[in-house]
């Protein structure tokens, strides 16, 4: 599974990354994810509002910080 956080590295982006990491730990999955900060790379996903969560190259959430439970549901749905 390929998981990415899209965002400039702001407080909200970092909060989404932390919630996603916690969700992965709760699911017993390897805690590996990329934090993409390059604006051109973010735009390539069609995302205009960050932070965004991308699972297996599909944008599943953007423009808000997910709670750990919400991130967990997106990850489980992608399994």
Structure report:
The protein has 79 residues and is an alpha+beta fold. Helix 1 packs across helix 3. It starts with a strand and ends with a helix. It is built from three helices and four strands; from the N terminus they run βαβαββα. It is globular. The longest helix is centred in the first third of the chain and has 16 residues.
Summarize the structure.
This protein is an alpha+beta fold and 79 residues long. The chain has helices spanning 11-26, 39-44, 68-78; strands at 3-6, 34-36, 52-55, 58-62.
Query: What does the main sheet amount to?
Result: 4 strands, mixed
Radius of gyration: 11 Å
Share of helical residues: 40-55%
What share of the residues does DSSP label as strand, in percent? 15-25%
The termini sit apart by: 8 Å
Unreliable spans are none
Tell me which oligomeric state these chains represent.
single chain
